Amino acid sequence: MRIGGVEVRPLGGGLGCLLMILFSIVASVVLTVLANLVLR
């Protein structure tokens, strides 16, 4: 993947990229649930 003139390669190739996406989704869901519990 190219951003501007820089070649960006995800860590671990395709699998690492997929894991990073999954991790970010799970982390955002967990943070949202925690925020709701704290701010209730």
UniProtKB/TrEMBL annotation:
The chain crosses the membrane at residues 12-39. Keywords: Membrane, Transmembrane, Transmembrane helix. This is Uncharacterized protein.
